[in-house]
Amino acid sequence: MMEMTNGSSPHVFVLLGFSAQPSLEPVLFAVVSCFYVVAILGNGAIILVSCKDVRLHTPMYFFLANLSFLDISFTTSIVPQLLVNLWGPQKTISYGGCVVQFYVSHWLGATECVLLAVMSYDRYAAICRPLHYTVIMYAQLCIGLALASWLGGLITSLVGSTLTMLLPLCGNKRIDHFFCEMPLIMQLACVDTSLNEVEMYVASFIFVVLPLGLILVSYGHIAWAVLKIKSTEGRRKAFNTCSSHVAVVSLFYGSIIFMYLQPAKSNSHEQGKFIALFYTVATPMLNPLIYTLRNKDVKNALWHIVSGNCSSFIGKLEQI
């Protein structure tokens, strides 16, 4: 491994990950591998049915397909390298690989925060303004909101990650985590990082706190509207419309809030790795399960596609 002079960039970083608990690494390798496969298949299935079934060509499923594509991209930016490090004694990642990882993870993390807020607005329009829903959530607006989510996340990643990449790094190449994160790279810098910290706090407010505020406001209006519904059946339908999104928001923001509210102790840092493992691996796997298990439209569309393909396959066999 080549040495580096003060202020230069290292050729490799060492991701310590879970190396302090070597007996746990084979178990984590198996669990993460299974979760990753389920996440790819589940989110891929949602994208497939959202595109192929015309009954799902609605704003809700358009945004859900975006979320599924985002989850596939986010977990793929982290899990393959994690599996390599869990499998063998080599715990390194190249400088270029580390840079790509924190650019992409920052971009997709910020995008997901905004996209979840957009999805909550869609649910607000569906429940609080049902007669005007198709007028409010017209196709061009939906595409514009999705593009704004992706571009907003990309811009904040380009700014924050580039400022981090420009920092001169000291001799320490060890990152006490299982993937490259901006705050951890900043800790390796030889210079004052006040500007980077200010940018990170401003970006966190814009892309984490504000979207969460918009989600809470949207669901405040939704809760008020649901309370006004007199029929039990009407309330049940309104609840089913929002329950999946509420569960996904709770998983995503719950893990982030829990991680950042932990006290600054060494054991809490180890706990933080498992929480990060949850939102980078488990959450992308759970999201499609939440939406399919609680959604008759998605289940029916999946069954229609599977049964149609099976019938077509059997018909071809009979012709042979």
Shape: globular
Continuous helix count? 11
Taking the alpha carbons of the first and last residues, their distance comes to: 60 Å
**Widest sheet: strand ordering:** 2-1-3
Report on the biggest sheet. 3 strands, mixed
Give the averaged pLDDT, no decimals. 85
Quick rundown:
The chain starts with 11 loop residues before the first strand and ends with a helix. It has 11 helices and 3 strands, in the order E-H-H-H-E-H-H-H-E-H-H-H-H-H.
Question: Can you describe this structure?
Answer:
The chain has 320 residues and is an all-alpha fold. Helix content is 75%, strand content 3%. The protein contains eleven helices and three strands, in the order βαααβαααβααααα. The chain has a three-stranded mixed β-sheet with strand order 2-1-3. Mean pLDDT is 85; it is low at 1-7.
Structural key phrases:
single chain, 320 residues, mainly alpha, 11 helices, globular, disordered N terminus
Question: In terms of topology, how is this protein built?
Answer:
Blueprint: E1 12-15, H1 25-52, H2 59-76, H3 79-87, E2 92-94, H4 95-128, H5 133-136, H6 139-165, E3 174-175, H7 182-186, H8 194-228, H9 232-260, H10 266-293, H11 296-319
Helix pairs in contact: 1-2, 1-3, 1-10, 1-11, 2-4, 2-10, 4-6, 4-8, 4-9, 6-8, 9-10
